[in-house]
Write a structure and sequence with these properties.
This protein is an alpha+beta fold and 219 residues long. Helix content is 21%, strand content 37%. Helix 1 runs antiparallel to helix 2.
Length: 219
């Protein structure tokens, strides 16, 4: 396991802050030993939490041209017919994966195809599991066209703690199934919008694994 490149700056800042706090206690308090035994222990635990959050595990991905692979680790919170009016402009099937702070927060391309659309939207930072987070929160929208001509939409959504969404998608480039598409810092969610009639293989409450769990199929 390695540390994801998106975590380097955050880990450096956190380390400096924790060192400064403990150094301040050591130099400014008359009897710092009793306090330091707690603050140092808490600092180590907190820092390892940040390291774990930015982990980038080596993982073999499932590859199948018609399959739509989960773009994220987490839990399925939505499987329903809805409308997607930014790209698809009509009815579709929404499958949403909620990522807690304990999940890997890398996002992967769910299909092989071409990036046909990309847009970043500024917005609010409500809890990512809320239905309205899909269109009110800070988010990015990416449309991917498969080799059979069908299009899916992948939406990265910031949560109450997330303050930065990173997306590597560029219009006109290839999306390679299982390749990294981006990263969301802290609690967040990823929505996948399927064409109506697609076969869906997951249900609400199910735990899924990025690059490995099949969400559904583009028939």
């Amino acid at each position: 396991m390695t540390i994801h490149k998106e975590g380097f700056a955050t880990l450096a800042v956190v380390l400096v802050i924790l060192l400064a706090i403990n150094a301040g206690i050591y130099f400014l308090m008359e009897s710092p030993a009793d306090v330091l035994q707690w603050t140092v222990s808490l600092s180590v635990i907190l820092y390892f939490f940040f390291i774990a959050f930015f982990r980038s595990p080596k993982r073999e991905g499932y590859r199948q041209d018609k399959a739509v692979i989960s773009p994220a680790d987490g839990k399925i919170v939505v499987v329903e017919e809805t409308e997607e009016n930014e790209v698809l402009k009509g009815k579709c099937i929404q499958v949403s994966v909620f990522m807690s702070v304990f999940n890997v927060h890398i996002n992967w391309y769910p299909i092989n195809g071409i990036v046909k659309y990309f847009k970043h939207h500024s917005g609010r930072f409500q809890a990512a599991y809320l239905p309205k987070a899909s269109f009110e929160n800070e988010r990015t929208t990416v449309a991917l066209e498969a080799s059979n001509g069908k299009t899916i939409v992948v939406r990265q959504i910031a949560g109450a703690l997330a303050r930065r969404i990173v997306c590597y998608a560029e219009v006109g480039t290839k999306s390679e199934q299982g390749k990294q598409m981006g990263f969301i810092k802290f609690g967040s969610r990823v929505d996948v919008f399927f064409p109506v009639g697609s076969r869906i293989d997951v249900k609400p409450g199910q735990t899924v694994k990025g690059k490995q769990t099949i969400l559904g199929w583009l028939e």
